Every structure is written in structure tokens, then in C-alpha cells.
Amino acid sequence: MTDEQSETTHFGFTQVPRSEKVQRVGQVFSSVANRYDVMNDLMSFGLHRLWKRFAIELCHVRAGQRILDLAGGTGDLARQLSALTGAEGQVVLGDINREMLSVGRERLLNEGVLVNFAQMNAECLPFPDNSFDLITIAFGLRNVTDKDAALSSMYRILKPGGRLLVLEFSHVQVAPLKPLYDFYSFRVLPLMGKLVAKDADSYRYLAESIRMHPDQETLKAMLENAGFERCDYHNLEGGIVAAHRGFKL
After folding, report:
1. What residue ranges of the chain have pLDDT lower than 70?
2. Tens of pLDDT, residues 218-230
3. pLDDT given for residue 6 in this prediction
4. What is the pTM of this model?
């Protein structure tokens, strides 16, 4: 029985009732929302900006397209996508967490970036079939309880010819890098979270959730099972992060 079919699921390394995971993940992001951007810069040494830029290049965004940025958080991707779609396009920033969505909304409005905002669950997206040219989800899929349901929901609302871009922490492919990455993840990150965000537990969950997330080939197969075609992925920083693509043809 898969995790998506059982009555429990993982919250980091802990097994919890499936009904509790959304609430627990919500508590994590509500706790770190106001320090989220600062922590991203610190814990990735600023590299998350390059990873997101690379992901957007893989999207081949055109003016006038309609885009959904899922788990859009504080709006990093939505800002850049909005600039590429132009006034004739539309970007919807969706997130399940109200606090993260509020931070992103305030930030983008203060910068004069006009996008739409909506609180939503990726497992049951509130849009008609064939609604979007592109869906992006950056560092959010690993927090979804039922990833298969979410991928199927994304496939449903993509237009024929549309694409999905998943940017996510993944599994290290360079053996000498793994012990260093483990030390950084389980020792340094929680300490950094404690000192900067006043929350060590949330960043301990981050490290654990990455290890529980499907590896590159497994996630590629999940995209294919949801109906996506021409699926591929690009490893970044030796597999610490991977950008997955799939098309609805």
C-alpha cells in the first residue's frame, strides 16, 4: 500500500494521520512566513534565486499566457512570471497557507506587481479543465499529502500543449557530497532556524521532508502516471535540487 493510499502519512520522519498533515505543515509555514525569504537566502547561500531563474527559463513563458504558480509563497516566481506574460497575460499565485499568501500579497503589491491571489489546496484545484498554459510549483510538492492527486489535478486544469514545472529539493547524486549535505541539513539548518527564525523544529522538518520526498526517477514516473508526457528533469547542485517538466499533449 502506498503512502497516498494508507491512513497515515509522513510528516518528516514521523508517521501521522493523513488528516493531520495539512495542519502540521500549515503550522510550519505560519511560523516561518515572516522570515521565509531571509532564511531562503541564508540556507541556500543565495542559490535559490539561480535555481528559480533556471526553472523559469525551462518554462519558455510567452506574453499573454495564463499561469498558475502553486505554493507561490512570498511571490519570487510570480513576480518574474508576471513580467514575462505582460499586461495581456495572467498569473495566479496560489498557496494553501494563509500567512504565506498574505506575506506574498503585501510584498508584490508594494512592488507594484499585479497578480491574482487565491488560497487553495493543490490536491483539488478550484479551476475548470484546460484553464492554464503553465503551472509552476517550487519547493512545495514535498509538503503535499497526496502528491498523485495533486499531479492529476494539475494535469486536469492545464490546457492541451501546456506544461508543468516542478522545482524541488531532491536526492543527492554525487556520493562525496552526501555526508556533507546531511551534516548541513541536520545540524546547521536547525541551528540557523533557531537563531534567525526562532524556530529550529520547522527547519528540522525541512531536512526530514526532503529525505522523504520521491527521488528524481520516482517523481518522473509519478508525472507520467498522472498523464504527463515528454517528462524530464535537470539536476542542480549535484541533485540537491531538481527541476522536473511534463507536458499535457
Report:
1. 1-6
2. 999 999 999 999 9
3. 65
4. 0.90
Longest dimension (CA), the chain: 48
Looking at residue 244, its pLDDT comes to: 98
* Domain CATH number, residue 144: 3.40.50.150
Is 30 among the domain residues?
yes
